[in-house]
Amino acid sequence: MTQVLPAALSPGMVLILAGLVAALLPRMGRNVAGVVGVAIAFVHLLSYGNAPVGEPLLFAQSSVMGFDLTGVRVDRLSFIFSFIFHVAAALNVIYGWRHATRLEASMGLIYAGAAIGGALAGDLLTLFVYWELAALSSVFIVWAGGGHAAFKAGMRYLVVQVSSGLLLMGGIAVWAGQGNDLAFNSFELIGPDGRVALAPLLFLLSFAIKAAFPFLHTWLQDSYPKASAVGAVMLSAFTTKLAIYTLARGFAGTDILIVIGCVMTAFPVFFALIENDLRKVLAYSLNNQLGFMVCAIGIGTPLALNGAAAHAFVHIIYKALLFMGMGAVLTRVGTTKATELGGLHKSMPLTTVFTIVGAMSISAFPLFSGFVAKSMITLAAAEQHHFWAYLALLFASAGVLEHSGIKIPYFAFFAHDNFAPSITGRARPKEAPLPMLIAMGIAAFLCIFIGVVPSALYALLPFEAEYTAYTSAHVVTQMQLLMFAILAFALLVKFRLYPAEVRSVNLDVDWFWRVPGRKLLMGGVVWTSAAWRSVWGGARTGAAGTIRRLYATHGPEGGLARTWTVGYTALTTAVVLAITLLLVFAAG
């Protein structure tokens, strides 16, 4: 395609500028700015072309303080992530057509632009700028949820995100101080001496925070459910997938990621099964799906990395679709608590159908997008003889069907009917607003289209690797797994063994940050304050004593203030002169 804008201008900057313009316009103007901005940025991205494997296209190259910077690097890995980020930005604009606030509309575009700019960044310093811009813009989306809970969650979110940025900057400083250039390529976590290298470790920790690694994940479940119906959809797409991109770019083939990824796929299953807030269930499910991608990056083969990229691509779409469905429920009903929902399929049939499409996609049913991506990762694990990882991925696949594939649509739209007019005395809730239905319809179409025509997705994948999704072995194995999970759910519900939906607050490891962590922090503040008072008090006492001694010597009544005789003065002068002559002689 013909280059419509300067090649040195990142498509992310186009969306950032559109976001700044949108902040100044009324609602319709904001919507137009969003559509036009996404369209121009997407055409600009396509005009670069999908670079051949291993041959990046470099633009916006410059030198700052002796370091070579590359503002735009287009290769097959950065292209597929930038591509899907544009799709997500377009869905966000449509979904929030009526309900996005000025702040959400503006920051949503800036947030998407920062993610795109980060994916296309060719050096670490440029990545850092977009990394922090994504953090700062997204926190406003959390705060736009309104209320004290959203404000506090946003503050915690901001602390975590800024900490990630500080680790990234610390790694850049160490890396540059060791004489390395700032090109963003792969890193070796273990140095030539067999020890963990400091700079790559700092990079990995920075990426780990945004990828929601175990024990670092609670910011996700804390903040996303506090956002508005529109804001949660925006948040679901960018931060964690940008982190997945950086892991794939910097740490492909790092063995520890296989273990971390397997843990990530497994532990959210248990929290999601007992969680009452369905948007928080989706947040745990998001963590579970990230585990598949992290595990694939750890395996590091071309097939596994293609699986990670493909899974990130389809996950952004179907996870957005599920958040859209729950956002529509929140808009019409005012809650997403399972105990307060049910029976909505009677008044929100289209939302029900679209949500079921998202549920079948995340559960990896054949002919849906999740199947053609997730099976690449499990096959890669099997080919590399990672037996335990393969079993963990199978368990997680069954678990995601239980909590996202079944629990979300079942308790939201079926189960007990809490909206029957005979119970409430009011009419049933209305169907979702038209813009929300359009966005959900587009996402649902993409989920089915990719599942039916996977070659359209495979053409974008970053590495050369032969793969066929629809083999009898893949289809039969997956269907057996899904049918077993459905049977297990049915039996658990039948015999009332399935965890009951109750109004409760489930504790995660964030308890350690909020309770003991807060006590340690406050104890540290008290100790620091006491130490400061002690030091300052000692300094004041010492200074006062010194002043008193100086006054006693140099004051108007001190020894140096008395009248000296001529002889005493001459003797003192002679002694000083003698000492000076001796010092000069010694120096010579």
From TrEMBL:
Record domain NADH:quinone oxidoreductase/Mrp antiporter transmembrane: where: 121-397
UniProt entry tagged with the keyword Oxidoreductase: yes
Lipid bilayer topology: Multi-pass membrane protein
Keywords for the protein's UniProt record, in alphabetical order: Cell membrane, Membrane, Oxidoreductase, Transmembrane, Transmembrane helix
A UniProt-annotated Pfam family: Proton_antipo_M
InterPro entries assigned to the protein according to its UniProt record, in alphabetical order: ComplexI-like_HydComp, ND/Mrp_TM
Subcellular location: Cell membrane; Membrane
TM segment ranges: 6-25, 32-49, 77-97, 109-128, 134-151, 158-177, 197-216, 228-248, 254-274, 281-304, 316-335, 347-368, 388-413, 434-461, 473-493, 566-587
Gene Ontology terms for molecular function: oxidoreductase activity
Domain of life of the source: Bacteria
Keyword Cell membrane: yes
GO cellular component, one term: plasma membrane
Protein name: Multicomponent Na+:H+ antiporter subunit D
